[in-house]
Hints:
By secondary structure, the chain is of the alpha+beta class. The chain has helices at residues 17-34, 52-67, 77-83, 110-123, 167-172, 236-249, 298-311, 325-328, and strands at 5-7, 45-49, 73-76, 98-102, 106-108, 134-140, 143-149, 152-155, 159-161, 180-192, 200-202, 209-212, 217-224, 258-269, 275-278, 284-288. The strands form four sheets. The protein has an eight-stranded mixed beta sheet. Bound molecules: flavin-adenine dinucleotide. Flavin-adenine dinucleotide binds at residues 5-6, 133-134, 162-166, 170, 185, 187, 221, 264, 266, 290, 292-296.
Amino acid sequence: MYHHTIIRSNYMLPGNExxxxxxxxxxxxxxxxxNYNSMVSQRGVVxxxxxxxxxxxxxxxGNAMRMAGADAVxxxxxxxxxxxxxxxxxxxxxxxxxxxxQPRGGTAxxxxxxxxxxxxxxxxxxxxxxxxEVTGFRNKAGRCTGVETNRGSIAAKKVAVCVAxxxxxxxxRAGMRLPIESHVLQAFVSEGLKPLLPGVITxxxxxxxxxxxxKGGLVFxxxxxxxxxxxxxxxxxxxxxxxxxxxxxxxxxxRARLLRMWGGLVDMSMDGSPFIDKTHIDGLYFNxxxxxxxxxxxxxxxxxxxxxxxxxxxxxxxxEFRLDRFERGYMIDEKGVGAQPNLH
Length: 344
Ligand SMILES: Cc1cc2nc3c(=O)[nH]c(=O)nc-3n(C[C@H](O)[C@H](O)[C@H](O)COP(=O)(O)OP(=O)(O)OC[C@H]3O[C@@H](n4cnc5c(N)ncnc54)[C@H](O)[C@@H]3O)c2cc1C
């Protein structure tokens, strides 16, 4: 059970940041809205930097965040020493020079979020069918008129797909090929330890992020495995890479025992950004391409998808998340690394 998942709005690009900041604001009232304890914990997310150019890039990101109404504080080494005295500041290869802190970032308990939303939907009259697989789409004169499932067919005026790591397989049944590859992302949890981490910490010279659950386990992860797969388990090279990242910033993590690890599917888009859009088939809508970061988007993703379904118009905050953005040349390449999912 993955007890905590990272929530943050530390994006930079105009197509992304206002959307994620809206999501952050919705997180802040989610527990009131659903009357459910989702363990939203705004203990801060700090991205460490290790060089002068990286500091400049983080300062730029922080400014973009603040312009979109988010919070961001650029800390120097002294500031990080006060926040996280246990880090290895003098690592010869990756000395820690400072960090970009988003104090309102933090974690939430993913399954409690799902339960809270499920109860809210149920109370509003939504039928939730569990263990019911969509096996195909009904189509009449080029219009989607419902779905086929392993438990019979369901007619609908509008069909909204949001199946994350299964996006390509499901949309293939509607005859669509998506600009998405499915990859595996691994996560790790240590045995329970005394409270140590103040919030979420990410390594800036490799891919490693860590937080501590309320039960005390260090919850951490890193890169996707980097090859196309539908297997929900990862491989050892990434385990080694993640552990190296951990050892580089907090060597004492080497003494902690690993309690469990697992891999899940992520729907990696070609530019690392998501889709909330109509498709070319009337009545069929698509939400996906969330890569490894769709959890934090959940409240805004649902909000903007509902807006699209109700009005047939993109919500202003999600208007860049279009399927045709590659044809139009309007990619949202947050990391500036190009069109390869395993680089995002
Ligand atoms: C190990 C790991 C760690 C992650 N950590 C973070 C994090 O810290 N922060 C963050 O923001 N994001 C994180 N993510 C990403 C995040 O979990 C996803 O982006 C997010 O869950 C996607 O939400 P969703 O509602 O679109 O899809 P999901 O939550 O995956 O839900 C899709 C649902 O569709 C169902 N489905 C699939 N096919 C069919 C079908 N044919 N018929 C009917 N139903 C179907 C599935 O069973 C599933 O229940 C992580 C992902 C992984 C794997």
